[in-house]
Amino acid sequence: MTDLFLGLGSNLGDRKAALQGALHLLAEQVGELCECSELVETEPWGYQSQNKYVNAVARFRTELTVGEVLEVTQAIERELGRTVKTAADGVYTDRVIDIDILLYGSSVIYSPALRVPHPRMWQRQFVMEPLSSLSHTPHLCRQGGGTAATIGFFDGVHLGHQHLMTQLCQLASGQGQLPLAVTFDRHPSTVVPHRQPTPILTTRSECRERLLSFGVEVAELQFDACMSQLTAREFMKLILHEQLNVKTLLVGYDHHFGRPLPERRETIDDYKAYGRECGMEVVVATELSSDFHVSSSAIRRALLAGDVATANSMLGRPYRWTGRVVHGHAIGRQLGFPTANLVALNPEQLLPARGVYAAMVDICDGVYPAMLNIGTRPTISPADHTVTVEAHLFDYEGDLYGQTVTVAFHACLRQERCFNSEEELMAQLHTDKTAALQALSTTN
């Protein structure tokens, strides 16, 4: 369950009834309504309207993902007749219902359709005060010194990303600013047409948790077709400057962002020039000092080659993959090695190459050493080419069906191969167990 904070406003018709209707729909579709401020009727500073604006801030507990939350809230806005038009002078007309603030856990979610977070919202003190639990994240945009930010998908949160976060915190501290990691709810490759989606190394929730552990705030932007069309200049002005109050931007030494210009590739000097236009200083990060180049792409290549040792060295920890235990054919039990058959909890997450691995498996009641097989079981089912994931937990007895487990890959023991008989396979499994225990004893 995750905390979800929403700031709602209404400025047309029966305003209180509109908000109460929105809260009722949210409670039905999002989750349990835990807390809600009083409906406050006031005229916020700088808002030009004949009517007074009614506001409420509500906290829910939900199991929905970020994407699902966005879909539900946008559908509720449409169902309640949200109407937004922009006049020539840039003044908004009245609206029936508008969700202005959307916070998911510790992250600020931005959606162009929801206009979140908008600097004007932080000037509406009456919206913030009723819920003290909102005080942590919203000061992101109210901070007097602004924010010091860096941008990226940060897939894997590897050693290079960790080096960048350390620099960001140091930079923000020296400038009296709040450190902010700006990331996205999906890999940009999933939005770009005619491009094969890139498998991810970490789920968005794991990525967010790891970034937060460095003491930075996280702003997760909804990356859609509209955002993919923003140039670097537009992104810096409209999103970083106007939405997230970024005063200092830390750019990776080899990082590029925004829709490319048709005539040339932009450089750091271009970013610095765009920053000067909106009062933003652009600082180039130093490269991680390492014997090898660390990148998310390099980690993916290593895992797809079964080289978990190299992948783990770049991650700074064992690679983790999460699955749910389902019923299999009980073949492992017949061979004396009962296995938990796993299906990916997130199909977008990368599965290492076929082979046998030494792993630690995290389940509800503890962490267990294990050997894990990824492959098509050519000895048992030569005609079936379906790739399966099977984990044999050492010294474990219990029912795992339906449970979610996380596998930490520590070493690759061997590649997948076909044996001449089940007896030969069983003998190899005993050898694999010995090798797995030896590998795990040296890594723990």
Which structural traits does this protein have?
444 residues; alpha+beta; Rossmann fold; Elongation Factor Tu (Ef-tu), domain 3; 11-stranded mixed beta sheet; single chain; globular; 30% helix
SSE order and pairing:
Blueprint: E1 2-10, H1 15-29, E2 31-36, E3 40-42, E4 53-62, H2 66-79, E5 98-104, E6 107-110, H3 119-122, H4 125-128, H5 139-142, E7 147-151, H6 159-175, E8 178-184, H7 204-212, E9 217-221, H8 225-228, H9 232-241, E10 246-251, H10 268-277, E11 281-284, H11 296-304, H12 308-315, E12 319-326, H13 331-334, E13 340-344, E14 355-363, E15 366-375, E16 388-393, E17 404-414, H14 422-443
Parallel strand pairs: 6-9, 7-8, 7-10, 8-9, 10-11
Antiparallel strand pairs: 1-4, 1-5, 2-4, 3-4, 5-6, 12-13, 12-17, 13-16, 14-15, 14-17, 15-16
Helix pairs in contact: 1-2, 9-10, 11-12
Describe the structure.
The chain is 30% helix and 26% strand. The protein folds into three domains: 2-131, Alpha-Beta Plaits, CATH 3.30.70; 143-284, HUPs (Rossmann fold), CATH 3.40.50.620; 324-443, Beta Barrel (Elongation Factor Tu (Ef-tu), domain 3). The chain is globular and about 75 Å long. The chain is built from 14 helices and 17 strands. It is of the alpha+beta class and 444 residues long. The strands form two sheets. Strands 1, 2, 3, 4, 5, 6, 7, 8, 9, 10 and 11 form an eleven-stranded mixed sheet that branches. A six-stranded antiparallel barrel has the order 12-13-16-15-14-17.
Short description:
The chain is an alpha+beta fold and 444 residues long. Helices cover 30% and strands 26% of the residues.
